[in-house]
From TrEMBL, chain A:
CDD domains: TM_PBP2. This is Thiamine transport system permease protein. It comes from Lutimaribacter pacificus. The chain crosses the membrane at residues 21-46, 66-87, 99-121, 141-164, 200-222, 249-277, 298-320, 340-360, 367-391, 397-419, 455-480, 501-519. Residues 62-264, 334-519 form the ABC transmembrane type-1 domain. InterPro entries: MetI-like, MetI-like_sf. GO terms for cellular component: plasma membrane.
Automatic annotation (TrEMBL), chain B:
Keywords: Periplasm, Signal, Transport. One of its GO terms (molecular function) is thiamine binding. Residues 1-19 form the signal peptide. Its main location: periplasm. It comes from the Bacteria. One of its GO terms (cellular component) is outer membrane-bounded periplasmic space. PANTHER family: THIAMINE-BINDING PERIPLASMIC PROTEIN, THIAMINE-BINDING PERIPLASMIC PROTEIN-RELATED. It holds the Pfam family SBP_bac_1. InterPro entries: SBP (IPR006059), ThiB (IPR005967), ThiB-like (IPR005948). This is Thiamine-binding periplasmic protein. It is found in: Periplasm.
Length: 529, 327
């Protein structure tokens, strides 16, 4: 905002005084969020009678955690830029379904996805078979590179979608103007695409960084040994092996501090792009219509599809055998998961909209949203358990708590998608709407919601799918009747039933993708996304 | 959201109403005990047939999570019985002061003597490396370290078998344990957070061997008709896991709790264990073990630290493990 010319800033200040959209829902949502995250943290600390000091091994865990999270975030985002660009420039049959499918790795339960990855990159995987056939030495997946590979597998689709959204926010008229001025692809990159990327990339990298900070099972399983200890494992150990609640709380605060430290610069650099309004035409990219660029984009899309879809194919293949004879508990769990997921979606969208309106005036609000993924689910779960336990049987609230926590965990993604679009809408149409006296509910109904529809649909799809696949806090609260599908998969695996677990994994994949597709599709109706 | 809370509340109320006329015995246990394919359903049916009560299992993660939950709840806990701790946890569990003596004298069919007045064993097993039938596996830790076999193990900081292996090496080699881990370090492909991930990786062919129990091949043989897996017999002997149950001092159903502990050692409970929990029953039932268990290896020597020793040695033993593997 600071970069806008003076006149515009004064104008904005005047608009703000009119308060076209009320701030109180955002304030309420913010308070609720703080209470939900800081409350449990405080409860754990209080129960421990104060914080504990981290031990030497925790500092090593901190270093490794930051290292893998930074690498994962940077590589995911760096790879996502050309992929998103290729997808933004090309229209081809099956593009829509492909974009939906590319989102799948992100929503799988970790262990299902890891087994899928190993089917490709593992010792007996496709890649090593191929290398063997070519007479080349085997590659070893276990180590820091394996951790980063898995995190890129999970997060590249997310980064691609966030960046793609940025591309689509550039009004089609700009590309038309660029074409009529005879701009080369290089010039278009410099004049149109780079300013957009500068606005979008820091936020995308920040979210992936925050996500990877609390990685536990992936980091340890693929990391190859105790070198790959993350803060989240240290928290788990503090809780369950040492019962050192004070240390767990301090470690959780360290996680939180890392995200806040990363959020400050990222949110500052990720400034608004200020392309102004367009007429919502379908983008056409005259400058990129050369055979060479066409071939380059096709190759990129094919490569990334191969990277993301081969492990998924392995998940499907492994699951087919088990899907026929799954125990009744699996179906019950699937129904429970669906309910939790829909409740989480409604809650998340409401929170995100309220906070986004507030964040128009106070950009740092977005950092508040990030806390949800920054704080260890184990700490939130334990804290909520401590808070609930004196009043009610925690098992009775298991599903409500799971929906709540999932809504909060998906909030950063929803905010990241909704906020830039809302800012664009307000920048381009806000003045007119205000001068027409369109405020409050009417403004929301007629101006904002229709224009946010694609991002709302995507956010809803992502939240629903995430909530389907999340293990999060349920493990601490659940009893037998209300286990979710991911928990049931883990239980099947814990009883040697790998085949049935793979079947349940496939069921989860199908349900999550169907939810994601339905919401995303609903949002994209009539839109050219 | 509100509907969900309402629905959950209604279901809970309905269940409570149905059981109102019978006293409720609440047993905290680990997850896999209560699943449809675990011992829980059969045990519940058999006990309810003789107790005129409502037996309610509450599953809480694994053994370590079980103890954490109990500590979080403290005196306020609803639990009458906790079932599923092992000897690595009982020292800390006893220290909470939440448990009462069981008052039962019994003979057990276990390779070690049992004289604990608070915790009663219900099953046990030996840790072992599992591999394919054709693997030429060395019979001791030194030779294993020298071999080029790949192994996947669990993290002792987050998993019971992982801790079991660290204690195994410690009890067999004492001060030399660090050197043994140095030898094993290059064989260990990766360390997983829990048993499931490690066993899954092994079945996917990611390693030649996995740390599990001597009874694991029985699952493949009996449930899958697959005789292709075997446990490797080690000359040092095999470390044991003994799983126990205890009665809460603050239980509001002390007689029922006593009745359950006594029931736990009868055939009705013990005969369910081998093919649901895939462990050895603490007291062999009259009909003996199921067919297929006779094919399992019988270690020459059983290793087990007593609970106080286990607790005293744990942190240093894990540090040795970590130092060797972090290199």
């Amino acid at each position: 905002m600071r970069r806008l010319p003076n006149g515009k800033r004064r104008w904005r200040a005047r608009v703000t005084r009119h308060a076209p959209l009320p701030a109180w829902p955002g304030l309420l949502a913010g308070l609720f969020l703080c209470a939900l995250i800081l409350g449990p943290l405080a409860a754990v600390t209080w129960r421990a009678g104060g914080g504990g000091w981290p031990v030497a091994a925790d500092w090593a865990a901190l270093r490794f955690t930051v290292l893998q999270a930074v690498l994962s975030a940077l590589i995911s985002v760096a790879l996502a830029v050309p992929v998103a660009r290729a997808l933004a420039r090309r229209r081809f049959p099956g593009r829509g379904p492909l974009i939906t499918l590319l989102g799948a790795p992100f929503i799988l339960p970790v262990i299902v996805a890891v087994l899928g990855l190993l089917a490709v990159f593992g010792r007996g995987g496709v890649l090593n078979d191929l290398l063997l056939w070519l007479g080349l030495p085997r590659v070893q997946i276990y180590g820091l590179h394996g951790v980063v590979l898995a995190h890129v597998f999970f997060n590249l689709p997310l980064a691609t979608r966030m960046i793609l959204q940025g591309w689509q926010a550039i009004p089609a008229e700009r590309f038309r103007l660029a074409a009529s001025l005879g701009m080369s692809p290089g010039t278009v990159l410099r004049v149109l695409e780079w300013p957009m990327l500068r606005g979008v990339l820091p936020g995308a990298a920040l979210i992936i960084f925050a996500l990877c900070l609390s990685s536990f099972a992936v980091a340890l399983t693929l990391g190859g040994g105790p070198r790959a200890t993350t803060l989240e494992l240290a928290i788990y150990q503090a809780f369950h092996f040492d019962f050192d609640l004070g240390r767990a709380a301090v470690l959780a605060v360290m996680q939180l501090a890392l995200v806040v430290a990363a959020a400050a610069p990222a949110l500052r650099w990720g400034a608004a792009t200020g392309f102004g309004a367009g007429l919502d035409r379908v983008q056409r990219r005259w400058e990129a219509e050369t055979p060479l660029l066409r071939a380059q984009d096709a190759a990129l899309i094919a490569l990334v599809a191969l990277f993301l879809l081969t492990p998924l194919a392995a998940v499907v293949w492994r699951g087919l055998a088990g899907v026929a004879d799954m125990p009744a508990q699996v179906w019950r769990a699937a129904a429970v998961s669906l309910g939790v997921s829909l409740a989480a979606t409604v809650l998340c969208l409401a929170l995100a909209l309220a906070l986004a309106v507030l964040a128009l005036r106070r950009p740092w609000i977005e950092a508040l949203g990030l806390m949800g993924i920054a704080v260890s689910p184990l700490v939130i779960g334990t804290g909520l358990f401590l808070i609930v336990n004196p009043w009610a049987d925690p098992a009775r609230l298991a599903l409500a708590v799971t929906a709540l926590v999932n809504a909060v965990m998906a909030l950063p993604f929803a905010l990241r998608m909704i906020l830039p679009r809302l800012r664009e809408v307000e920048d381009s149409h806000g003045r007119l709407a205000t001068s027409l006296g369109m405020t409050g509910a009417a403004r929301l109904r007629w101006l904002i919601l229709p224009r946010l529809r694609p991002v709302l649909g995507f956010s809803a799809g992502l939240t629903a799918a995430l909530a389907m696949g999340d293990l999060g806090v349920i493990a601490l609260f659940a009893d037998m009747e209300n286990a979710t599908l991911p928990l049931q998969i883990l239980r099947l695996m814990g009883a040697y039933r790998m085949e049935q677990a793979a079947g349940a994994g496939l069921l989860l994949l199908i349900l999550s993708l169907a939810l994601f597709w339905a919401f995303d599709r609903g949002g994209r109706d009539n839109a050219a996304v | 959201m509100r509907h969900l809370i309402l629905a959950t509340g209604l279901i809970a109320t309905a269940t409570a109403a149905a059981a109102q006329d019978r006293p409720v015995l609440t047993v905290y246990t680990y997850d896999s005990f209560v699943s449809d394919w675990g011992p829980g359903p059969a045990v519940e049916k058999a006990f309810e047939a003789e107790c005129a009560c409502d037996l309610q299992f509450v599953g809480a993660g694994d053994g370590a999570a079980l103890l954490s939950r109990l500590r979080l709840e403290g005196d306020r806990t609803e639990a009458d019985i906790v079932l599923g701790l092992d000897t690595n946890l009982t020292a800390a569990a006893r220290e909470t002061g939440l448990f009462a003596p069981h008052g039962i004298t019994a003979e057990f069919d276990m390779p070690v003597d049992w004289a604990d007045d608070t915790f009663l064993p219900f099953d046990w097993g030996y840790f072992a490396f599992i591999t394919g039938k054709d693997t030429d596996a060395p019979g001791d830790f030194r030779a294993l370290g020298d071999s080029d076999l790949s192994i996947v193990i669990q993290d002792p900081r987050s998993s019971t078998p992982g801790l079991g292996l660290v204690m195994w090496v410690k009890s067999a080699y004492g001060d030399q344990a660090g050197a043994i881990w140095d030898g094993l370090a290059d064989n260990i492909v990766t360390v997983t957070p829990g048993w499931s991930e490690a066993y899954g990786l092994f079945l996917e062919g990611e390693a030649d061997m996995v740390l599990s129990y001597t009874t694991s091949p029985a699952y493949h043989l009996i449930a899958e008709d697959d005789a292709g897996k075997m446990a490797v017999q080690m000359d040092e002997g095999h470390y044991m896991q003994v799983e126990v149950a205890g009665k809460l001092a603050g239980s509001d159903q002390p007689e029922l709790a006593d009745q359950f502990l006594a029931f736990m050692l009868t055939d009705a409970f013990q005969s369910v264990i081998p093919t649901t929990n895939w462990m050895y029953p603490a007291k062999t039932p009259a009909d003996g073990l199921p067919e297929g268990f006779e094919t399992l290896i019988a270690p020459d020597k059983a290793l087990l630290f007593d609970p106080e020793q286990a607790r005293a040695l744990r942190d240093a033993a894990i540090a040795e493990w970590q130092a060797a593997l972090a290199r």
